Amino acid sequence: MVHSIYSNKDIFLRELISNASDALDKLRIASMVDKDLDVDASDLHIELVVDAQARTLTVRDNGIGMSRDEVVQLIGTIAKSGTAELLRKLRESNDGGAPQELIGQFGVGFYATFMVADKVVLLTRRAGESTGTRWESAGEGTYEIEQADDAPQGTTVTLHLKPADPEDHLYDYTAEWKIREIVKRYSDFISWPIRMTVERPGEPGEDGSPGEPTREVQTLNSMKALWARSRDEVDEAEYHEFYKHVSHDWTDPLEVIHMRAEGTFEYEALLFIPAHAPFDLFAREGKRGVQLYVKRVFIMDDCEALTPNYLRFIKGVVDAHDLSLNISREILQQDRQIQAVRRRLVRKVLSTLKEMREKQPERYRTFWAEFGKALKEGLVEDVDNRETLLDLISAASTHDAEQLTTLRGYVERMKDGQSDIYYLTGETRSAVENSPHLEAFRAKGYEVLLLTDPVDEVWVEQVGEFDGKPLRSIAKGQIDLETEDEKKAAETELQERQKEFEPLLTWLGERLAEDIKEARLSTRLTTSPACVVGDAQDLTPNLERIYRAMGHELPPSKRILELNPTHPLVGGLRKAHEQGGDEEALGRTAELLYGMALLAEGGELKDPARFARLLAEQLSAAV
To answer: What's the CATH fold of domain 2-202+212-219?
Structure first.
């Protein structure tokens, strides 16, 4: 039964210590409520005793203890019911979790001991009673129980460990280092001291002979749960030390978030925003999530249920006062409590980042440089917090070559009559800054966002707008930047030029039919001879590259070749075509024109060798 519930044998000691801690909590409360209860609560603690020769491990507490009826109810019922009955209850519960009445009961966690022990003996006496109870079982569905007159107050659990495996030293539960490791990992922040008597070598004699060993009592746990203290009681050095402990980072965190939730569901959280991105931030198998505790008992590392993927860089601890766990406390049920905590944590992290951006812009720039790419994933994943995330976006733009801008800042600088937020995507900033698509926008003073992260290709399409202003790619569709007066003049000029260039445009559409949808005159070019643009619903070339790199098969796509009618190369090509120039020479020039347009936007040539050969031939003819 226990092997079907628990995945790690070390869990047994966590369960016993957790039970002991609960017993100490109950005694403290009982002594405050019942003034007539005759108990000594001056030195409440948990004691671990190891006997390596006898292969026993004992966990003892001086807490509330149990009566005979409680022993039968909490432990004996499970023993008598047997494996089949308990597993039947597990199957009937939701998602394989434990029925609510089994969660947190002493007996369930207690039975984890049979993963490591052949026999378990329990000695207990309830506070206020004069006699105790002795319970013993080999974990085979039966047990022995009898009265124990000499039982001390509290509960003592003695495990007769299974024979040692000489080939597996990692699970020697009589080794001091192993006991320390488990306590440090799972029970370090239990509020009661966990003590163990350890033996140390004595001072050698004058003749070099070994001295008598000494025995000393040591407290194994720190009991310093920083998250349970108010922020005024913790200094920055303590926060930084704890961050390094939970994150395995060697640098101080960028920001500390200490929060407490009270009411129907209570928990404390101590979260950290690192100063540097981990090496596996974008690795598919990278770990994410914060540590989860319940009443200071460690439950799991990397609890993904508590933070969304786009906040995977957040480190820290969440300690819930009460949480629906499954029977092993190892897997969370996806219930309303978990979802409520997750929503609050996300809102707190985002509000902290927003405050940082407003009050500490330099620090926020550091954050954005390290984690901006990950945060932008939330625009796709987290619709509920999309508006907040949009306010946190920083992006390069043509407004300032050095500083990034916010979307809010862009909107505030929009020209009179401008209705769209213009952007251009690409692989690198230098590629998009030198794109011919920007020429008309620079000439007319329109700001353009320069987006170069792979996720930018996705979120701009899904978000669609900001503050009521549509997000529009300047590399797709027709671009209209003219005033009404300019439009009238441009329409007349365009109609005239359209007649002049119609034969050339038709010929180019036929000659380059394998690569382009059509050829047309451009209104977005001022200095470049040509550019390629997509229809409004087309994928951008960069997004196509991303999909193909991810293994997606995409059908071949064709774009539109736009020509600058004022450029000498385009004008010369028109005249040569009108005069019936050499078809092959004109064809080479058309291919070169299209290839240059692709290269100018950072695109890839279908046949680079052919392009180089055509260019060499053209240059040779001109010499």
So the answer is: Heat Shock Protein 90 (3.30.565)
**Higher per-residue confidence, 610 vs 536:** 610
Give the separation between CA 541 and CA 209, rounded to whole angstroms.
80
Q: Which residues pair with 465 in a beta bridge?
A: 470
For residue 330, count other CB atoms closer than 10 A to its CB. 14
pTM, two decimals, is: 0.73
Looking from the CA of 467 toward its CB, the CA atoms found within 13 Å total 13
Report, as an integer, the average pLDDT of 450-467. Answer: 92
**pLDDT tens digits for 220-250?**
998 888 898 888 888 898 899 889 888 888 8
3-state secondary structure 467-536: CCEEEEECCECCCCCCCHHHHHHHHHHHHHHHHHHHHHHHHHHHHCCCCEEEEEECCCCCCCCEEEEECC
For residue 602, report the phi and psi dihedrals to the nearest 5 degrees. 85, 15
Q: What amino acid is encoded at 2 in this protein?
A: V
pLDDT in tens, 45-68: 999 999 999 999 999 999 999 999
CATH classification (class only), 393-473: alpha beta
In what helix (H) or strand (E) does residue 401 lie, and over which residues does it extend? Answer: strand 400-406
CA distance 413 to 398: 12
Q: Which fold has domain 484-622?
A: Four Helix Bundle (Hemerythrin (Met), subunit A) (1.20.120)
**How is residue 370 written in tokens?**
């390290």
Question: Looking at residue 573, what DSSP letter applies?
Answer: H
Percent of residues, the chain, with pLDDT higher than 90: 46
SS3 at position 135: strand
Distance of alpha carbon 604 from alpha carbon 38, whole angstroms: 85
What does the domain layout of the chain look like in residue ranges? 2-202+212-219, 226-365, 393-473, 484-622
Between CA 113 and CA 121 the distance in angstroms is 11
Which burial class, exposed, middle or buried, applies to 148 when counting CB atoms under 10 A from its CB (0-12, 13-18, 19+)? middle
Quick: pLDDT tens for 100-159.
333 334 555 687 888 899 999 999 999 999 999 999 998 887 889 999 998 999 999 999
Token pair belonging to 331: 């897997």
CATH architecture of 226-365: 2-Layer Sandwich (3.30)
For residue 559, what are the β-bridge partners? 516
